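re: that chain from earlier
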Amino acid sequence: MNKTMKRALAVLLAALMLVSVLAACGGDSGSSTPSSEAGSSSEASSEDASSEESGDDASEPEEEETGAWAPPSIESEDYDEVSEYYYNYTLGEFYEAYKEATSEVLDVNKRYAMEAVGEAKLLEAGVMQPTTANGGQYAIGRIAPGSTTTNGWGSDNERYQYSIVTKELLKAEDRDALKDLLNEKRGTGEYRKAAIEYLTGKGYTMKDSYTTTFTKLPTTWDMMATSKAADTVPVLGQLDSLLFFDGENREIPALAESYEMSEDGLTYTFHIRKGVKWVDSQGREIADVIADDWVAGLQHVCDSGSGLDVLFNGVIEGIEDYVSGDEPDFSKVGIEATDDYTLVYHLQKPVPYFTSMLHCGLSLPLCRSYYTSQGGQFGEEYDTEATTYLYGSDPDHIAYCGPFLVTSAVENNVIEYKANPTYWDAENVTLKSMRRVFNDGSDVTKNYNDLQAEVTDQCGLSTATLELAKKDKIAGDDATIFDNYAYVTSTGATSYQNFFNVNRVLWHNDRNENEAISPQTEEDAARTHIAMNNSHFRLALAMSVDRVTWNAQAVGDDLAALSLRNSYTPATFVSLTEDTTIEINGEEVTFPAGTDYGAIMQAQLDADGVKITVYKEDPSAENGKGTGDGFDGWYNVENANEQLDIAIAELATAGVTVDESNPIQVDLPYDASSSTRTNRAQAYKQSVEAALGGKVIVNLVKCESTEIWYWTGYDPERGYQMNYDAFDLSGWAPDFMDPCSYIDTMLPDYNGYMTKCLGLF
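^ sequence. v structure.
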């Protein structure tokens, strides 16, 4: 256990000692966890999960003989054991449902349905409040629809090499015509040529460059050693993948010319494209791309501790044993290069979505010889702290086989790219250069002004810029920018959440004790700890946030509801292809073919009596069936107070009084350098305090810079570093075409990348 963890755990134990004393004295503070009473289904099986998976010290707290709710208690200095205890107590029922859905269920439709049940249990636990999706906002720009994939998983939506970009802003009417053309040509491979012909005929000039924005430089340029989008997106052009989703959403060959799957679905053989070169940042050839590069890449992912490897748990043979250390020999993992151009994956079980997993960081190649020349090692020798380890330290210490080379990267300024002349498909790449210019959001009009000045090529319209666009005109135009060029983007697959910390141990940033300081006293913190461990309290908090008003601070009143999302996995992410029967609370229910994932989640929520709406039937939705986006299915003052009343009664049995004179304090850090984020935080505070009658006070913890705000909850790698009670920055984009790409992130034992947002692992 490192010093930071020991210090954090000492703070937690001190708080818990205070809780115990106050509870014993019948005082106003205590330590707490979710209730097992009053209709809270999310705790019903946590006792079983705990006794099954925890040692004696982590056993589930016993209820008093009266059946009254009691706070949890664990005496341990082992952080992993403490995390396991709180996880089982809080998410035990979700985890049981998850394991049932993903263990031996080979029927894809039944798997989807059972995963939906598991996610319903996750939402019922109230550990996260869905906020928004990417998209669903007004935008203007020069990049044509169909330039990148819209499939929602992997990373191909951020790969711009084949983009169609115009010098002039695209008119909304032409954008609509291009969408119609895309639907007409989808699956034929003919859209890009047809789109360019259409635009040229309309008088547009094609560009061979594209400029977008970034908020911070990557903390590492080794995209296979991180799960953060802020790290991976700026480097995506560095590497190419086996397969590629194009703008027509076709999965087509990239570095693999072809592949075969065995009859039993357990073996995939890929034939690697010959003649592809590895180069350095100057374009100088390093080596040939060969099958072994994928073997080296996967081992590096596993060694790095990035968390990406968990996506292959239960998929590729032997990977869990290697990561856990039970089998240190990586050759026992189910990936091998049988020769220089033949790559074979051996699966643990048939995985129908396997090829969709090959489009993100965990499935990319690594030039073994270059990596080791930069001090990289594998297995037990892996050590990024070694003075000789240079790989990924900057753009000049990575190897490239993708469409772009990073030529310059200046913090708070610009990242410059040029086309890789050795790229295997260089003749079809439409962009010869690309730029990312710095924009931290502190000036809400910067990107709007940059777009008009032809500095950037795409801009979402915020509250402030929307009003400008409704007044401004481009020289020669009769109508305003808004009337001529604005369009509404579709909601995408990225889901943003507001997470609640159930195991908080820090009340200032761990890298600097003068950053993001909580105003809570030790007694306040102990009371908050006990309340945040009560599921009814968490649900009350989530149901008290008027997300439409909150979101309006960023996108304006017109679009405030459109980007709202009500679940973690988008409700329409997958749907059943045939009639499927599963059990809902012991009763068999048959869902017909075509049923959306969200409809099954809703069925479980309704059966459990949890008043959350995550899916609505809507014939006008894009799929003609329904949606889980575009409305607020959580905010309801009556429901919030119903949950709070249950929580108050349960907290009282633990000696914690909650009323207007004794409110629970919840710390929400915010970025004071951004007016939009400041306004959102204020809207959050006003909504919660008004809805819950002053029985909950939201402390807005001021962060003087975006960097400080990021360090309260986005940049930290472990739960014990999280400095908040509620946090609204993090989100997740799927890595492959299965709902477990989302809900896997909430697994225990460091297997879930987002579980740390709850203060665990």
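Residues 68 and 653 are 6 Å apart (CA to CA).
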